[in-house]
Sequence to fold (422 residues):
Amino acid sequence: MPHHVVVKSLSFTSALGRTKPVSHFKHIVDHDRSRAQKFLAGLHPHGPSPYVEARKSRRGHHHHHRHHPTGGSGTVPPSGGSASDSIDVTDSAVTYLMDVTIGGQDFNLLIDTGSSNTWCGADTQFEPNSSVESTREAVNVSYGSGSFSGTEFTGPVVLGGSSGLTISNQSFGVASTSQGFSDTDGILGIGPVDLTQGTVFGTSEVPTVTDNLFNNGTISTESIGISYNPTTGQDIANGELTFGGVDQSKITGDVTFVDITSTSPASNYWGIDQTITYGSSGSAILNSTAGIVDTGTTLLLIATDAFQAYQQATQATLDQTTGLLKLSSSEFANLQSLFFQIGDTTFEFTANAQIWPRSMNSVLGGDDDSIYLIVSDLGSDSGSGLDFINGFGWLQRFYSVFDTTNSRVGIATTPNTNAETN
Fold:
């Protein structure tokens, strides 16, 4: 089998680096856009392909789908996740980190739904012990703005630290070299398993941590519920991942589930179809089209033509220091909600949700008294097959469910959907 080097996504806390000068935040905008371009290219070993049906067929055989009667779409009451399956995670200002114990050693890993390899050793060197075993196979992943190379190991991995969810025999990479990571030990990849194809020499694909939790019987449904909450500080444990279900205490209504989009390249990831409008008049921002929900992207990215329509509607100006749109106080007073039509449900993204937390403007390298928008330019016009990325900022206002068993994504409102936090 030829040895492939796979180009995928990157979680961008590493690009900022919590110890770097705050003026470097503009690099986050550039890196988010670079990440988007990699998604758009659909670059994995087999290129963009309509593999979703094959994936569904394969998972249907192994996982015994429990589809909703509507075929996986629609609003359904949430399923329960036990407290033991829920893990607290930390907001690091632009993404979330999880404590993960690998081979008895503790690491802080970026949570990334846009990639699927789990690996460590970027910041803290991995020290193998008798509980782990090297496969002696090379692993190489390029993330566009970063990369790592090393060796694949197998051994015990505990999500959430030493007392969390245990996987007795997880395959994971150990970096011998890495670039583009700062104050981060690696990535917890929870995207579709197909994204691991060709990353490890001699291996067709590497089961994700979610795959193994399901296959080991630890969880009855291969899904992850994610609760991210808006905050006015960083390094705060204000998020939660629930493996195998939904934490009902985090949501305020039913979960709207939609099937993974059939449109490539969004179909290679956690891709959905949605429509975006602005204000009570319903001004069109982005007509029904495909994109992805991604924990590893900081901003809410929309296609260039949609971004231009949004900028015109809001009267915002582009700030050269941060790379973000900027509003005056009077313009913010007139800012209206964005409305996301996902399946049969309309989700309101309020004016407050659209701005960066003003108490954290220093993280941007921006002015303390300025108001910055988190909606940014994807870098290509709509019609590409991936016209938006609902990133970190968007996810802090909604509960999200990534359901491998039924090949679908779920969204629900939370107590923070209409919060005035920012």
About this structure: Helices lie at 13-16, 26-41, 52-63, 209-215, 304-314, 329-333, 361-364, 392-395. Confidence is low (pLDDT under 50) at residues 1-24, 43-72, 77-84. The radius of gyration is 20 Å. The CA atoms of residues 275 and 287 lie 5 Å apart.
